[in-house]
Amino acid sequence: MSKIHFVGGEKGGVGKSVLARLLAQYHIDHQLPFTAFDTDRSHGALLRFYADYSRPIALDEFESADQLMEAALATDQDILVDLAAQTSLPLHRWIEQNDLLNLAGEEQIPVIFWHVLDDGADGIALLAALCERYLDHAAYVAVRNYGRGRDFSAFDASPVRARTQQLGGLVLDLPELHAGTMRKIDHQGISLWAGAHNKDSGLGLMDRQRVKVWLRRVYQQLDQVGPTLFTPASAPVSG
After folding, report:
1. Which InterPro entries is this protein grouped with (predicted)?
2. What phi and psi, each to the nearest 5 degrees, are found at residue 190?
3. Which of 21, 59, 186, 235 is exposed most, by the fewest CB atoms within 10 A?
4. Interatomic CA distance for residues 27 and 54, integer angstroms
5. What is the rounded distance in angstroms from the CA atom of residue 180 to the CA atom of residue 212?
C-alpha cells in the first residue's frame, strides 16, 4: 500500500527540505521503496542532493500535480513531496478541487502531512489550521526542529499539540546538526550518506562523525514510527 507524504510547514526557513532529505536518506538506507517529488523546480534540495530518486513537480498545474497520485497507484511505495515555501495554496486547491483525500481513502492510500516547526508562534497557528482543514481525513506528524529553535514549550503547552494528538498525530524531534557541518554538506552538494561516510567528500573526520551521530539520533525516532508511516519493502518471491 502506497502512502503520500507532504513535507512542509508553510513558513520558509524552518527546515522542511532538511527533513525531506533525511526521509529520502532513511528510505535509501533501509531499502524502502519511494519516489521523491520536489516542488522547487529551480533550487530544489531533493533534485540537487537526491537527483536519481527525484522528479520536479508543479503544484499549480493540475496535470503535473496528478503525478503524485499516479505514482502512488503505479506501485506500492512512499511518495515524498518536499513542499517549497508558498506552495500551500496550490496544494490545497489541488487537494480540494479533486476531492483527493476521499479518493485516496477509496484507493487505500494514506496521506500524511509532516509539519516542521521552529519555536515561533506562526508555525503553531499554521499547524492548527492544517489540522482543522483536513481533520481525520489525513495523518499528521509535527516535527520540532531544534536546528531552528530551542524552546518549544509554547507548542507543548498549546491546545494545538493536544488537538494534533487527538487526531492521531505524532510529535517528533529533529536534532540540531552543527551549522558548519551542514554548510559543508550543502556547499559540496553531497547526500547525507556521503557526508557521514565518504572520506573524499570534503568533510573531515569530526564533521563526518557529527553527521553519523545526527543520523543515528534521527533514525532512532523514525525506526519507532516507520512501521506505521512508511511503506515496507516487498517481500522477495521464493522460487
Report:
1. P-loop_NTPase
2. -115, 165
3. 235
4. 13
5. 15
